[in-house]
Amino acid sequence: MLERSQARAREKVSVRAMAHSLIVVCGDGARGVTMRHIARCLDQDLPDDVLFWLKVRNQIDWLMRTSRREGDSIQ
After folding, report:
1. Angstrom distance (rounded) from CA 10 to CA 32
2. For 13-56, what is each residue's pLDDT tens digit?
3. Total Cβ atoms within 10 A of residue 29
4. Cβ contacts of residue 16 below 8 Å, gap of 6+?
5. How much is the pTM?
6. How many angstroms separate the CA atoms of 56 and 18, rounded?
7. Which terminus of the chain has a smaller tally of CB atoms within 10 A, N or C?
8. Cα end-to-end span (Å), the chain
């Protein structure tokens, strides 16, 4: 049952929205959070979830690489 609820939640949240939220909440630790989710999904044999979190990690990497001036929004 938990897997189904996770799948529904993942469908409702886009990769971009998840990446942005993690950066806002976790700052520089956002990538580490995604890596833990990827490892957990690999351990639990959830390939669709692994794919989702890999996309989130890639989006975080891209967002963190872009240069911003102080006070600029990540969006």
Report:
1. 19
2. 899 999 999 999 999 899 999 999 999 999 999 999 999 999 99
3. 11
4. 59
5. 0.73
6. 7
7. N
8. 34
